[in-house]
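Internal QA ticket QA-208
Title: Verify multi-chain structure generation after dependency bump
Assignee: T.L.

Test input:
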Amino acid sequence: MELSQAPEQRPTITPQLIMANMLLQLSSTELEQAIAQEMAENPALELLEVQRCPKCGLAMPDDYCPSCASPARARLGFQAEMENPARWEYRVDRTSFSEYDAADERDDLTSRLASNTTLADHLLHQLRLSLSSRDLQIATYLVESLDDHGFLCCDPDEVTSVFGVDRTRVENIVSGMQELDPVGIAARDVRECLLIQLEHLRHEGAEQPLAKAIIQDHWEALGRQPLAQTAKAVGATIDEARAAMQFIKNNLNPFPAHAHWASGHESPPQRTTIYPRPDIIIANSPASSNGGYEIELPEAQAYRLRVSASYLKAMEDLKANKTLSAEEGGGQWEAFLAKAQLFIKSIEQRWRTLHHLALCVVNYQRDFLAYGDRYLRPLTRAELAAMIGVHESTVSRAVANKYVQLPCGRIIPLARFFDSSTAVKEIIKELIAQESEPLSDREIAEGLAQRGHHIARRTVSKYRNALGILPASLRRRYRTVPTA
DNA sequence: CTATGGCACGGATT
DNA sequence: AATCCGTGCCATAG
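Actual output:
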């Protein structure tokens, strides 16, 4: 991607517009690269460092992460726990923990794309089988506050006060959750997670006492000291310690949530994927003036660019000494400066556009935010462009490759707001879940029309297939209504 | 005759 | 200009 192209020849289009357009359509990852490249090329540009959340990598303007904050309040205290294991993994082995590395370096988004249903659904499905309805409520809360890595990052005391139950009860539920399918889910950190898996293996007959000792007592130290020292501390030989480490690497997964645990599923009823870092966060904020929602652009806070003061000063000095003249490369200095200003302006334009667009969408899709997919109102990019008074291609660019985090914590593509099919699909699922006799596609289309969605019968057929629902005749026979 | 899937056209998106 | 998606028309299966 060339950001450093000379201003275009076309007279009607300004360099500003070209750069702004280009930056607007980049994903957050690409933007990061573009900024890095520009920083490397342009000495006049300065980037203020911003603290990042150790878990999701989002910028943290304050001491908490805007992404994890809802619904899970994640505090910075987590960082100390994460740091050492991460470093250790990096050092010890790049293969078995490569997933974490990849996520951390954000170079490969697809490795983080998950499977057919969300992890939360999978967990809740299991929980429903074993818990009373009251405990299920608590468990649901806990599941929803798991972070991207499947760790439990909420304070047990918070839960006890929210639900008004005593602490041991919550802890029982948590330890129950940790036995669920991705074993070690809902642990508080990597160390606890590994210990749980180790315990699980022990029940299955695979015991490794040394591994347990190492993880339990020397986990943090592993990253700092040579393995020999750890071996000595637990009273083992270096070879035994190596074997234990090998065992850990082969049998344990520090981030069970990343595993493709839904491998053996039948045809996917829905494809809910886990998406990477959000570009826009919509948070509940009853006090706010925007009708109860707050828009945050985490990346806008991460990339605080400005023209370097030292660059300006150096330029002034050179001018004062008359050493700087246009003939001998002085134009270079001016060019860098102009380019830096242009770049900054363009980036800011991106934030303005995204923010404006988000405000508008939130306002328009209020019901969707409050009540879910079913209530997504049809909206085309062209309509929105008219609403906010920009060209439709601008909206198109702004929507491309962006992700939004909803108040409920779901992260979805921004384009979803413009996809009329999601609402209809939801209603189709609903209709079929409620049907007593299998409804034909035509009858479904009628039902949809009654609810205000006028959809061709042919299209119903396509959606039904996309949802993995059999045709009416087959439903009659096999009763394979997907669990809603 | 009814319910569905295949193919192709036209409008929207990129 | 190239591509995706909803829809209409038609053939086929029951």
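Spot checks passed. The beta strands of chain A are 45-48, 280-284, 293-296, 304-307, 403-405, 411-413.
Status: verified.
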